[in-house]
Write a structure and sequence with these properties.
Elements lengths: L6 H10 L2 E3 L5 E5 L5 E5 L10 H11 L5 H9 L2
Length: about 80
């Protein structure tokens, strides 16, 4: 199933994971309540949805979710 998340929604997810923007860069870092250190790059100037390939990479490699579906469910629970 195809899930869509916008860059603005991704920023809200990062905030919920106790991540903070690093200065004026597009890098967000923080340690979640599960004790895992996360680093994510958010292109805040882009509007609209994140492409499915990039969303998968962000969900699994940067935010350490098991799948895009887990990321989507976390977002819906906010």
């Amino acid at each position: 199933m195809g899930y869509t998340i916008t860059w603005d929604e991704l920023e809200k997810i990062c905030r919920k994971l106790n991540m903070e923007r690093q200065g004026k860069t597009s890098v967000w870092k923080g340690t979640g309540s599960d004790g895992k250190m996360r680093t994510c790059i958010i292109h805040a100037k882009h509007k609209g949805n994140i492409g499915p390939g990039l969303l998968s990479k962000i969900a699994k490699e940067q935010l350490l979710f098991d799948s895009v579906e887990d990321l989507h469910n976390f977002h819906k629970s906010l």
